Amino acid sequence: MNNDARILLAHGGGGRLSWQLVQEIFAPAFENPDLDTSHDGVVLGLPKSQLAFTTDSFVVRPLFFPGGDIGKLAVCGTVNDLAMCGAKPLYLSASFILEEGLEIEILRRAISSMAETARSVGVRIVTGDTKVVEHGKADQMFITTSGVGALLSDRRIGPKQVQPGDQIILSGDIGRHGIAVMAQREGLAFETTIESDCAPLSGIVATLLATGADVHCLRDLTRGGLASALVEIASTSGRRAAIREEDILVSEPVAGACELLGLDPMYVANEGRFIAFVSKRDVDTAMSALRSDPLGKEARVIGEVGSETDGLVTLRTVSGVDRVVEMFTGEQLPRIC
Amino acid sequence: MNNDARILLAHGGGGRLSWQLVQEIFAPAFENPDLDTSHDGVVLGLPKSQLAFTTDSFVVRPLFFPGGDIGKLAVCGTVNDLAMCGAKPLYLSASFILEEGLEIEILRRAISSMAETARSVGVRIVTGDTKVVEHGKADQMFITTSGVGALLSDRRIGPKQVQPGDQIILSGDIGRHGIAVMAQREGLAFETTIESDCAPLSGIVATLLATGADVHCLRDLTRGGLASALVEIASTSGRRAAIREEDILVSEPVAGACELLGLDPMYVANEGRFIAFVSKRDVDTAMSALRSDPLGKEARVIGEVGSETDGLVTLRTVSGVDRVVEMFTGEQLPRIC
Fold it and tell me: pTM for this structure?
């Protein structure tokens, strides 16, 4: 297959060109002992009888941006969702919807990025599918990944496990992914190039859970940002989450870009940041573990869970006023992931 | 949410409208004890330590056609891939890429069809995702499902298990799905309305495997039809598959439509038909089991695996001539699934 070749409808037709695409592009990139390109599904071993299962579609525009691309994002997004269930990611599926006329070289770059990211976290891409739609009926490439993972412990982790007194830890600065993609898409140039925080969080979560710290809930901050993640957890748990603005880290360039664009960094997407709800007695253990990992070296306790049962999120602003944080209505930045 | 409402970009934004879409449309339709809409993934129990895992994207146009729709197809396609691994389908994920402006009522119909099909086979839709792209950047709705299933036996089932002497059974008539979708799309009217064969095959496969018959390979006939499925299996196994045209059932209306349109039914897509490679000594047991199920009442032995190791498929035509069946190059009918 030439590098200047383009995707044809027949690449999605289930015949020779489909087969060629799998054999020449997908199979070599994703090579691993569990990958099965000869069958429509795959049989896998699992160390435990409980598994975590998740899926996400990726429609980011543009496909490539500072700090990442759709391929890296498609692996990180699903790996991170598994990590947030308290699971070690084991296997991924990858399904592609391609627009007729897409340059094969673009597909190859995205796939190579997927393969590299998957290898870096020890997760195997084991099964997949490709469909092609007519030119103008999709936007270059959409990727859907699903993931299966093994629970790292028997402890249930989720919004319903949140308890009064839990400390809320934020793993790093916020808003970089959304601004990086937006700047690339709109051709905005800031003084400093803002790079997406896109990163796989399975390693740092494993480090955190290995301490045995009493972790009640984990959530990566994606679409809707820190605010939406907190509102969802507070509302599901029925507990109040009280956070402090002064402890929420926003880098200088991101803060500047947000001011310029009229965006609130609390609602801007991230792809490598998460929050952890941890028992008060274990917060030091958790913080040490997080800070020992490069992805958590700026982790901070940003607030705690109150005894109120109103399911609200309150923010103490730098000027000392408390205000209720709402779920965002509408769309700040479309197609950010 | 009004029935005449339309999808907005904000329905994919991770804020209030995303939440509303999940709570009002997805959650009630897919309701089951394992569905978790409060978290990005879900933790599941598995009866065995081996699982089958598969994924497929669905881009069929039009979304609704005689005998099925994109929702039914999205469940059947993934359920059938799990069944072909010899697994009982347990859990599905569902990820939606929606075009801005899509009528909510259309989404609701597709989802209700997914839910109904899932319930009919006892598989649970447990996790999902929704993205929205701008009007003109997708074609109404694309659905990607992934599935996890538990192996029904310890026997490995796949192309590499195919043995010389294996009998090749086809579960019913071919070509109905492709012609049904094509006719609907192009506004072709035949004397009889041709209905898609779209159906979940997990029940009939469970019946077959419960007999203990020595089944070596199973494959559902989707894109590329019977011919492509046979060519792939023969080529992967390195064995020759010899089939007889006279034993391959094509209904009168499908045969007529194919003749009119210049299509070969051997390459036309199906969504509820499969082939089974079974040891010669167990073929009667297998045939009885298949014929006891409404989806297999027209099952026939269409050929057998030879001792040649050339990986070819040969077809003995009704006129008694043997010809090699090739993998299709190009695209007969785009966006059939």
Answer: 0.95
Contact: A39, B148; criterion CB under 8 Å: no
Q: Which residue of A has its CA nearest to B232?
A: A38
Domain that holds residue B286: 159-324
pLDDT digits 0-9 by tens, B105-151 = 999 999 999 999 999 999 999 999 999 999 999 999 999 999 999 99
User: Which of B81, B133, B219 is the closest to A59 by Cβ?
Assistant: B133
Q: What is the pLDDT of residues B216-229, one digit of tens each?
A: 999 999 989 999 99
Q: What single string gives the DSSP state of each residue in A9-39?
A: GGGGTTSHHHHHHIIIIIHHHH--TT--SSS
CA–CA gap between residue B71 and residue B74 (Å, rounded): 5
Is B4 part of any domain?
A: no
Task: Using an 8 Å CB-CB cutoff, list chain A residues near B93.
Answer: 53-55, 146
Q: What whole-number distance in Å separates Cα of residue B204 and Cα of residue B291? A: 9
pLDDT tens-digit readout, A249-266? 999 999 999 999 999 999
Residues B135 and B56 in one domain: yes
CA A240 to chain CA mean position, Å:
25
Average pLDDT score over residue span A107-126: 95
User: Edge-to-edge, what's the strand order for the sheet holding A50-58?
Assistant: A124-133, A87-99, A141-151, A50-58, B41-45
How near does any CA of chain A get to the CA of B49, in Å?
A: 5
Number of domains chain B is built from: 2
CB contact under 8 A, A95 and B8: no
B281 and B164 within one domain: yes
Question: How many residue pairs from chains A and B have C-beta atoms closer than 8 A?
Answer: 296
pLDDT tens string B276-335: 999 999 999 999 999 999 999 999 999 999 999 999 999 999 999 999 999 877 667 889
Contact B38 A224 (CB under 8 A): no
Q: Could you give the CA distance from residue A336 to residue A271 in angstroms, rounded to a whole number? A: 10
Given an 8 Å threshold on Cβ–Cβ distance, is A147 in contact with B42? no
Percent of chain A with pLDDT over 90: 78
Q: Which of the four pLDDT bands, split at 50, 70 and 90, describes residue A330? A: low
Assess whether pLDDT exceeds 90 at residue A167: yes
Q: What secondary structure letter does DSSP report for B103? A: B
Using only the alpha carbons of chain B, give its radius of gyration: 21
Q: What residues of A are in contact with residue B88 (Cβ under 8 Å)? A: none
Same domain, A139 and A197: no
Is the domain of B186 the same as that of B309?
Answer: yes
B137 with B31, same domain: the answer is yes
Do B221 and B251 sit in the same domain of this protein? yes
Q: Looking at residues B48-52, what average pLDDT do you find?
A: 82
CB half-sphere exposure, A22, CA atoms < 13 A: 24
Q: Note whether B35 and B120 are same-domain residues.
A: yes
As a whole number of angstroms, the distance between CA A188 and CA A169 comes to: 32
First-to-final CA distance of chain B: 29
Cα B56 to Cα A131: distance, rounded to the nearest angstrom: 9
- List the single best residue of A30, A125, A146 to mutate versus B (max B Cβ within 10 A): A146
DSSP state of B100: T
Residue at A6 is within a domain: no
* Chain centre distance of CA B304: 24
Question: Among the three residues A120, A151, A182, which one is the final residue of a domain in this structure?
Answer: A151
